Amino acid sequence: DEQLDLSDGRWEDIHVVTGALKLFLRELPEPLVPFSHFDKFIAAIKIQDGAMRGRCIRDLVLSLPPAHHDTMKVLFRHLCRVIEHREENRMSVQSVAIVFGPTLLRPASEESNMAMHMVFQNQVVEHILNHYGYIF
């Protein structure tokens, strides 16, 4: 309900804007990739055959609820534009995946192997970024 004035000088720092976006996404009751899909995405990224892995991840993205799918499409399109400017902003595909992976894709409970999950979370985000055109 808060009205933001984006012309306010504090929004000029890209780190503040990115932090606000990550905070918003992190505080959603359910992540952009719903809890019900977490294990499916982790299993898909582990598939050895690249073509099969790609089809499986695309099918999982298509199976997301419309609000999740549509938001993911817009967000990942923007992140792909960020990556296009990696020479200036030093945000490679891997960097963006590390920053956004745990925020967009997380298990319902953090009890089990967090470090291993983080590797796979980042790989899923990296895969979607690298294959945006095919997936969306």
Helix-strand pattern: HHHHHHHH
CATH class: Mainly Alpha
Helix content percent band: 55-70%
Q: Number of domains in the coordinates?
A: 1
Q: DSSP helix count?
A: 8
Global structural class: mainly alpha
- Radius of gyration in whole Å, from Cα? 15 Å
Assembly state here? single chain
CATH-defined architecture: Orthogonal Bundle
Unreliable sequence segments: none
The general outline is globular
By CATH's scheme, which homologous superfamily applies? Rho GTPase activation protein
Q: What kind of sheet is the major sheet?
A: none
Quote the distance from N terminus to C terminus. Answer: 31 Å
CATH fold-level topology: Phosphatidylinositol 3-kinase, Chain A
Describe the structure.
- The chain has 136 residues and is an all-alpha fold.
- It has one domain: Rho GTPase activation protein (Phosphatidylinositol 3-kinase, Chain A), CATH 1.10.555.10.
- The protein is built from 8 helices and no strands.
- α2 (35-45) runs antiparallel to α3 and α6 crosses α7.
- The protein starts with 13 loop residues before the first helix and ends with a helix.
- The model has no long low-confidence stretch (mean pLDDT 92).
Summarize this entry quickly:
By secondary structure, the chain is mainly α. 68% of the residues lie in helices and 0% in strands. It starts with 13 loop residues before the first helix and ends with a helix.
